[in-house]
Amino acid sequence: QVQLVESGGGLVQPGGSLRLSCAASGSIFRIMGWYRQAPGKQRELVATITRAGTPNYADSVKGRFTISRDNAKNTVYLQMNSLNPEDTAVYYCNVFTLEGSNYWGQGTQVTVSS
């Protein structure tokens, strides 16, 4: 059974940084990534990374966010720098197994406010 445990969200001032982590278990994961959903908006892609380490970013976070993964630990990270209020959202971990099954984490709140 696949389980995802997210951590690292919180309150940060504009210009600050946060690091999200998502520890996955129960399978081998082809793609791992992060999505976010702000109040009143649809869930959107933030970044994904393949098992080989190839990243993909939304234009809105390029140059500010960095996604990485540790395959030995089945963990994906999202380093978020230069945060602004528009980054405020619930951030969800998302993974695809080698067989193509898709799973979501429970979400972690990120709030950027002074």
Structural class: mainly beta
Distance between the termini: 40 Å
**CA gyration radius, whole angstroms:** 13 Å
Major beta-sheet overview:
7 strands, mixed
Oligomer: single chain
What does this structure look like?
- There is one protein chain.
- By secondary structure, the protein is mainly β.
- It contains no helices and eleven strands.
- It has strands at 3-7, 10-12, 18-25, 29-37, 44-50, 55-57, 65-70, 75-80, 89-97, 102-104, 108-112.
- The strands form two sheets. Strands 2, 4, 5, 6, 9, 10 and 11 form a seven-stranded mixed sheet that branches.
- A hairpin with a 4-residue loop joins strand 9 (89-97) and strand 10.
- The model has no long low-confidence stretch (mean pLDDT 97).
Topology:
Layout: E1 3-7, E2 10-12, E3 18-25, E4 29-37, E5 44-50, E6 55-57, E7 65-70, E8 75-80, E9 89-97, E10 102-104, E11 108-112
Parallel strand pairs: 2-11
Antiparallel strand pairs: 1-3, 3-8, 4-5, 4-9, 5-6, 7-8, 9-10, 9-11
Could you list some keywords that capture this structure?
11 strands; seven-stranded mixed beta sheet; four-stranded antiparallel beta sheet; 114 residues; mainly beta
